[in-house]
Design brief:
The complex is a heterodimer of chains A (256) and B (323).
Chain A (H helix, E strand, L loop, with lengths): L6 E5 L5 E5 L3 H29 L1 H6 L2 H20 L1 H8 L5 H6 L1 E5 L7 H9 L1 H4 L6 H9 L6 H6 L1 E5 L11 E3 L17 H12 L6 H20 L7 H11 L2 E4 L1
Chain B lengths: L3 E4 L1 H21 L6 H23 L4 H18 L7 H11 L3 H4 L1 H24 L10 H13 L7 H20 L6 H60 L6 H32 L7 H31 L1
Helix pairs in contact in B: 1-2, 1-3, 2-3, 6-9, 7-9, 8-9, 8-10, 9-10, 9-11
The chains are: A mainly alpha (256), B mainly alpha (323).
């Protein structure tokens, strides 16, 4: 069975590949719920407004006033059913209020700008995807499809991906309170990759608390043995010193 | 005691470039209206970030840097390459050239849709008129009761908006389902066209048999031309879609759909307009106390315009082209 990768890769005109996380049925369902809540709130507000305005005629006879509101109710429900998603996705570049709140977005599968026809088409097909009443058809297709698309997505060549606000904690660099360690004592068969240095830094940077002390020492010991195996060097003495020395070998020291 | 700070390649890379990244992130959050300089910087910064991402990947830098740059690049890409609004330059020729000829480009779809719909409509109308007890096979008992009540209340056709509202919502949704069903290789469209026809015919036959014929036909005359043709257009669009999915020709199904999407939407577009107009007429004119003559005029006008736009105009254009 082919390994399913939950990414969408697009190539931009600048010839760089950008990766998106695909949004599955769970999170899309949440966005739908939010959208339904919004629609329900609007209808509720309308009801309250209408009831307040028509208070007297409500008390007398409900015939005339009733029909008018019926008309607007159905019109509203119809609008929400067929046009709400389309208009928002066109206006907000692939997002409805529900999608925005949850952090997902509709994008074209190839990374091109989202076409109007595509948005219209994918939302017109909600009629089938939402069958019967709880998006069962859409749910099944998005579970089966490798890119988690429902029928509307397949027809209009769109995909729903997660849109996250890029955030970065510029982590503190590793600081040594002693003088720089001896360099070059351990000559390994290869140098450590940046990823491995990243891991070493993460683990060394963990402060030891009363409960964590033993755990921290265990982790450092395990890490040191892994590093020594990778570099094919053996060390003697404190594993933490060994790690610090190899780290120092791969980085530029900078006196403060 | 002197402290030594150890910086790996990733961190040095980060420190050198982060100015650009932070600036790009700030711009992405929003550019003030008068900020021309910001507008100019945005694409430039995007290209810097893209280059940084490529370099970071080549150098195999730490995953947190790579992921951050990926997210930053994708956010900027999305902002820069978002689709513009529909330009009027594209709409006008579409209106004048693509739209009217739509029936002639897909004659079989329209023929089939019309046959399925009007055939089932006529069948169920006459059948249930003769045997009103069979109406429950197609329409639920409560719905029949509701219709009866509606027409009983207003024998001269002046019924309230409520019934009209139900009708509008139900029929238009059903028409859209006639279209959406086309995705199931056209079979969904066939089903919904048949169901729609049977339903409407059954309601008409039943009510006429129960003696509300005058009120019913009075009510539906005005908007029927618009609504029924809207249903046929929607069904035809669904059939075209189903056909394109089945017969992908030289392209794989996905690309074929991409290419035919505009055409499918062109077939659907008149349906939306017709159904919207039908809803308007159905809400304003049909339930009012308007005279029968007015309703017939509206019906005739709507059918006449349809014939003009979708049959005569394209025929004339074709003739002038050939001559």
């Amino acid at each position: 069975m082919a390994r399913t990768v939950p990414f969408l890769r697009i190539e931009t005109p600048e010839k760089i590949r950008i990766r998106y996380n695909l949004a599955g049925p769970g999170i899309r369902g949440m966005a739908l719920v939010v959208d339904y809540l919004i629609q329900g709130t609007v209808i509720l507000c309308f009801t309250i407004l209408w009831a307040v305005l028509n208070w007297d005629s409500l008390l007398e006879s409900e015939d005339e006033a009733g029909w008018v509101s019926y008309f607007f109710y159905f019109l509203m429900i119809f609008f929400f059913q067929w046009f709400y998603h389309t208009l928002f996705e066109l206006w907000w570049n692939g997002q409805t209020p529900g999608k925005k709140m949850v952090g997902i977005q509709v994008v074209s599968r190839t990374g091109d700008p989202l076409e109007t026809g595509a948005v219209i088409m994918r939302n017109l097909l909600r009629g089938i995807d939402s069958f019967p009443w709880i998006y069962l058809v859409g749910l099944i297709t998005s579970l089966v499809d490798r890119q988690k698309r429902r029928l509307g997505d397949m027809i209009s060549d769109t995909v729903v991906v997660q849109k996250t606000e890029p955030s970065f904690h510029f982590p503190p660099s590793l600081q040594l309170t002693e003088s720089p360690p001896a360099q070059g004592r351990y000559r390994g068969v290869r140098s450590l990759t940046e990823h491995e240095l990243f891991i070493i830094r993460q683990i060394l940077a963990q402060t030891s608390g009363p409960n964590k002390d033993k755990k921290r020492r265990e982790m450092i010991y395990t890490l040191a043995s892994k590093v020594s195996r990778a570099l094919e060097v053996s060390y003697s003495g404190d594993p933490e010193d060994f790690l610090k020395e190899t780290y120092a070998d791969h980085s530029t020291p900078n006196k403060k | 005691m002197p402290t030594t700070v150890l910086r790996t390649k990733s961190e040095i890379f980060l420190e050198e470039r982060r100015g650009n990244w932070i600036e790009l992130q700030r711009l992405l959050r929003g550019i003030a209206p008068g900020n021309l300089e910001g507008l100019r910087r945005l694409p430039k910064l995007y290209r810097c970030v893209v280059a940084d991402l490529a370099q970071a990947r080549a150098l195999a830098l730490a995953p947190d840097v790579l992921e951050y740059l990926n997210e930053l690049a994708s956010a900027a890409h999305h902002r820069l390459y978002s689709a513009g609004p529909l330009s009027s330059g594209k709409v006008s020729p579409w209106f004048r050239h693509s739209l009217p000829g739509v029936i002639f480009r897909h004659p079989w779809a329209f023929l089939l849709a019309a046959l399925l719909f009007f055939g089932s409509f006529a069948l169920s109308l006459f059948l249930i008129w003769a045997h009103p007890e069979w109406a429950q096979a197609v329409v639920s008992a409560e719905t029949l009761e509701m219709f009866e009540e509606m027409y009983a209340q207003a024998p001269d056709g002046g019924m309230g908006l409520g019934g009209a509202a139900y009708y509008i919502q139900h029929n238009t949704s059903l028409a859209f389902l006639c279209f959406a069903g086309g995705v199931l290789f056209g079979l969904g469209s066939v089903y919904f066209l048949l169901y729609n026809g049977l339903f409407l015919g059954a309601v008409g036959g039943y009510l006429t048999a129960q003696g509300y014929g005058d009120a019913f036909w009075r009510f539906v005359t005005a908007h029927s031309g618009l609504e029924l043709s809207g249903i046929v257009f929607a069904g035809a669009a669904g059939l075209v879609m189903g056909h394109r999915i089945l017969e992908a020709g030289r392209y794989n199904r996905r690309d074929e759909l991409r290419r035919s999407r505009d055409e499918i939407l062109t077939v659907l577009a008149p349906a939306v307009g017709l159904l919207a107009l039908a809803a308007l007429v159905e809400g304003l004119i049909s339930p009012s106390a308007a005279e029968m003559s007015l309703r017939v005029i509206i019906l005739a006008t709507s059918l006449g315009l349809l014939t003009l736009v979708f049959f005569l105009y394209p025929l004339l254009k074709r003739q002038t082209h050939e001559s």
